[in-house]
Amino acid sequence: MEFKTLLFEKDAGIGILTLNRPKQLNAINGEMLTELSNAMDNIAADDEVKVLIITGGEKVFAAGGDIAFMSGADSLTAESFIALCHQAFDKVANLEKPVIAAIAGMALGGGCELSLCCDIRICSENATFAQPEINLGIIPGAGGTQRLARLIGPGWCKYLTMLGDPIDADTALRLGLVAKVVPPDQLMTEAKKIAAKLAAKPPGALRVLKKAINYGMNVDLASGLAFEQKVFALLFSTQDQKEGMKAFMEKRKPVYKGR
Ligand code: CAA
Questions:
Q1: CATH of the domain at 215
Q2: CA contacts within 13 A on the Cβ side of 84
Q3: How would you summarize the oligomeric state and partners of this protein (predicted)?
C-alpha cells in the first residue's frame, strides 16, 4: 500500500500504520482521512494482518484536525470533513481485528480521538493528551464527546473537553485512557509484544469479543448480555474452540487456525 500521508508495513501477522505528515505534526486533513479509509479497507481484507498497530512515529501521535484547512471552512465544508473523519475512524473502531494505538508525544484533538477508536492504547512517558478544541471556538467532532465519555466517564470527559488542558501519560493511565506507559525507546517493542500475543489468540473469538464489548457500550445491559450469550454459544461451532479446550485437556499449547 502506497500513501502520501501514511506509511504501512507488515511482518509476522502484525500491520503497522504510521501517520506521516511530520511537518504538520501529523495534523489530520482530508487526504489523510481518505487514505486512512482506504488503508482500513485493505487491512480488513488482508488475511496476513492479524493485528494492527497505529502510531504517529517517535515524536508526535497527531496534533489533531488540520486547523489550516478548518480555519477557512464554512458549516457545509466542516460537515463533509467531519463526515469523512467519522467514516475513516469508524473503520478503525469496527475493524474485525485488534487495533493497538502506540502513542508517543502529543495526541491532541482528532489525534486523541483516533486513539479512542483503537482497542488498546499504550503510550510513552513523554505522551500528552488533550481535547483542546474549546480553545478554537469548537468542540471535539471526531468522537471525543462520545467515545471519551464512554471510556473515562462523563466527569473526566467534561473536565478535559471544557478546559482543553493537556494531561500527561501518568494521568492518562490513572484515568484509564491508556493501559500502559513505557519509556519512549520501548514503545514499539511493547506494542509489538502485545500485538504478537494477540496474533496467537483465536481470531474468531477475538472478533466476537470486540463486537460484544463495542455493541454493549451502545445498548442497554439486557441487550448486551443477550448478545454475549448468543456469541458465546456460537463459538462452540468453531474448530478453534475445540482446539483450545482439547489442548487444555491434553496439557499442551493450542494451535489456532481461525476457523
Ligand atoms: N493543524 C494544522 N497544522 C498544525 C496543527 C494542526 N492541528 N498543529 C500543528 N500544526 C503545524 C503548525 O502550524 C506548524 O506549522 P508551520 O511550521 O508551517 O508553522 C507546525 O505544525 C509545527 O507546529 P508548532 O510550530 O505550533 O509547534 P509547537 O511545538 O510550538 O506546538 C502544538 C505544538 C502545541 C501541537 C501546537 O502546534 C498546537 O497547539 N497545535 C494545535 C493543536 C490543536 O488545537 N488541535 C486540535 C485541532 S481541532 C480538532 O482536532 C477537531 C476535531 O475533532 C477533528
A1: 1.10.12.10
A2: 17
A3: Homotetramer.
Residues with catalytic roles? 113, 133
Separation of CA 27 and ligand 1 centre (Å): 7
Q: What is the pLDDT of residues 191-216, one digit of tens each?
A: 999 999 999 999 999 999 999 999 99
Residues counted in the chain: 259
Ligand 1 atom with least separation from CA of 67:
1
Model confidence pLDDT, tens digit, residues 129-148:
999 999 999 999 999 999 99
258 in a structural domain: no
13: helix, coil or strand?
coil
* Domain end (from 199, 214, 232): 199
**Residue 110: CB within 6 Å of ligand 1?**
yes
Q: Which of 19, 67, 106, 146 to mutate to test the pocket of ligand 1 (most atoms within 8 A of CB)?
A: 67
